[in-house]
């Protein structure tokens, strides 16, 4: 019994060492490509703003606001000509991308230079889709120091010429670094097994017009400007006017049972969910 217990402890210790080693290796491998200042970053095709949490009212979290502001600075400095905002928009009530897009336009960046990727469900998917859906070849990844090593490692292993700029510390400092340890292992496995994201879909070349990737949710939580103004129009009588149909890059919708269904048309229409909860 004692021998079995000792073997179990030794196995757990070995796994812990491997997990930590993966994280440290990524940090060492990507260190030459991480910059602390916008002024020092090499020029690239686009800035990639990775998603983070937003409030129920559509306001950016501290982490996401730092990323958005750093993207504004990169664009203003002429380091990039386009901005690709990627994140999770699996439901209308959870939209990490439109609020960032609204922040960027409020800062004076033209909408046609801003691309929204609504299906960047994780860092690996965001990098894969940047390459295969948006045709990005070189990028400056905008995130915090705790996230950049993993993001850059994945991007470069996928063949992208990727650099990173530190957007600041944000919040929950220790938690963010601790979370990167298992996330780094997942990234290694994604690359080792050449995982293909479930949703790819239509291509939107980064050299084109980014406005074709925008769509506005019908709820106010996902479609507000940084100042809190609702996105959309109203008639003189005060009734809401639905936005005109535009192309949509959201490739999936989360159903009530946790499964996903794919998009069936260009204007964010989706296949019906197989399961619908009964009204109680």
List keywords for this structure.
6 helices; 13% strand; six-stranded parallel β-sheet; Rossmann fold; two-stranded antiparallel sheet; alpha/beta
Describe the structure.
- The chain has about 280 residues and is of the alpha/beta class.
- The chain has a domain at about 30-210: Rossmann fold (3-Layer(aba) Sandwich).
- Helix content is about 35%, strand content about 15%.
- It has six helices and ten strands, in the order H-E-E-H-E-H-E-H-E-H-E-H-E-E-E-E.
- It has helices at about 1-30, 60-75, 100-105, 125-130, 150-155, 175-190, and strands at about 35, 45-50, 80-85, 115, 140-145, 160-165, 235, 240, 250-255, 260.
- A six-stranded parallel sheet has the order 1-6-5-2-3-4, sandwiched between helices.
- Helix 5 (about 150-155) links the parallel strand 5 and strand 6.
- Helix 1 (about 1-30) crosses helix 5 (about 150-155).
- The chain is globular and about 65 Å long.
- The model is unreliable at about 215-245 and about 275-280 (pLDDT under 50).
């Amino acid at each position: 019994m004692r021998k079995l217990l000792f073997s179990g402890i030794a196995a757990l210790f070995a796994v812990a060492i491997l997990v930590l080693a993966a994280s440290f290796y990524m940090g060492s491998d990507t260190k030459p490509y991480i910059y602390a200042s916008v002024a020092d970053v090499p020029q690239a095709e686009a800035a990639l703003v990775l998603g983070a949490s937003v409030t129920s009212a559509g306001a950016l979290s501290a982490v996401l606001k730092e990323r958005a502001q750093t993207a504004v600075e990169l664009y203003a400095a002429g380091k990039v000509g386009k901005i690709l905002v990627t994140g999770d928009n699996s439901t209308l009530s959870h939209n990490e991308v439109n609020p960032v897009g609204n922040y960027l336009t409020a800062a004076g960046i033209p909408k046609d230079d801003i691309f929204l990727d609504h299906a960047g469900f994780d860092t690996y998917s965001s990098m894969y889709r940047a390459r295969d859906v948006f045709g990005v070849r070189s990028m400056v990844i905008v995130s915090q120091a705790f996230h950049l090593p993993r993001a850059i490692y994945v991007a470069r292993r996928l063949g992208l010429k990727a650099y990173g700029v530190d957007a600041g510390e944000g919040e929950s400092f220790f938690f963010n670094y601790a979370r990167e340890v298992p996330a780094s292992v997942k990234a290694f496995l994604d690359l080792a097994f050449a995982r293909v994201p479930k949703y790819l879909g239509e291509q939107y070349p980064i050299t084109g017009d980014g406005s074709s990737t925008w769509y506005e949710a019908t709820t106010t939580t996902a479609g507000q400007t940084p100042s809190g103004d609702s996105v959309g129009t109203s008639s003189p009588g005060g009734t809401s006017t639905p936005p005109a149909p535009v192309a949509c890059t959201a490739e999936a919708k989360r159903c009530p049972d946790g499964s996903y269904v794919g998009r069936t048309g260009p204007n964010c229409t989706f296949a019906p969910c197989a399961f619908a909860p009964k009204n109680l």
